[in-house]
User: What shape does this take?
Amino acid sequence: MIIKLLWIVLLSLSLLLVGAERAWAFCGFYVSKADASLYNQASQVILAHHEDQTILTMASDYQGQPQDFALVVPVPTVITRDQVQVTEPALMERLDAFSAPRLVEYFDRDPCEPLPIMAPLTMRAAVINGPINRALGVTVVDRFTVGEYDIVILSAQESQGLATWLRRSGYQIPKGVAPLLQPYIRQGMKFFVARVNLGNYQRSGYQFLRPLQIRYQSPKFMLPIRLGMVNATGPQDLLVYILSPQGRAEVTNYRTVQVPSGEEIPLFVKQEFSSFYKAMFRTAYERENRNVAFLEYAWDTNNCDPCAAAPLTPEELRQAGAFWLDEPPSDQDSRFAAPGSTFITRLHVRYTRDKFPEDLMFQETANQEFFQGRYILRYPYTGDATCAAARRYRQQLPQEYEHQAETLAELTGWDIQGIRSRLGRP
Assistant: This one.
């Protein structure tokens, strides 16, 4: 069996506006998005958090026989049966599609037509005692089954004893895991251990393991990632969707950086947006010394404009852990984005052991500034136009194409001459 450590959270980006004249001309729609499917080993986590309450949802990217699956998660407090449930995989897919960086098409207006009069654009700144193995220093705090998972809650006095207990219990944990367990033991954290109950899994009719959801109360707002590095062969991608009734969430022990956004890029990128986004992210990751959390999305679900996918319903948000939606609006804190609202922050972390020696620590903020990773394809006007403005417009197009080429080369590291050779012309 393989211990696979999977975690789940939320994050964000601020919408960049183009110049006023061009903004009036734009009438666009989304044509593609950079979702989790771009990455072969991307874990996804949802963290619904406010004050000292957290609901953690973990989606498994495990591929293999279900009997070989195991999950070991350090948690800040004892977890009981009524604090654990399984959720539908579609929930993670909905959050991913809604918040993913996206490609958008805009079409220039006829330069001979007068500019429309538009209203100003505005944006908001945005314990059960169990048996103890005295020789190993491990206490089984609780055992229970939820859906297709058999779950054990453990506490331990030292890491080697915990590693030995896991092996003796049939968990084939990777070599070298014991030193990584020790910091959690020193902090007094417990261990949530889950594996598949084959009988329940076969009766469930599901082809894939469903996400596990844990509810707990603790002042610690964090996500353990170090254990997940023990058997990693290279960098790992983590998408964290953080839900809050107040505003953005931020990483406190590493820098949080917005992904490049709002740039115009050549039209041919429409056919290879996945390659573009992976190259762009890799370039930004290297430039930031590979030790930052990237903000890809930050938005209030009550004010989705524009949307890359249909907004999540209140019921879907509740399933994702937004417990504050069950509270009467009059009881909600005045600092909240809006009564009954949920703010989504999407963070993308690519991590390795040498660059991320600490687990991710977060804080909830009142920052309600909106942001989204957004990349623009702008189609030139090609109709008949004989006015002076049209002549100036066409004279400027070669400069626009060159600027798009230089921008793409800067974002991705792609060869500028190769880009120029592929530029479209009106």
Remarks:
- The longest helix spans residues 388-412.
- The two ends are 58 Å apart (CA to CA).
- The longest strand covers residues 42-50.
- Confidence is low (pLDDT under 50) at residues 1-30, 118-132, 331-337.
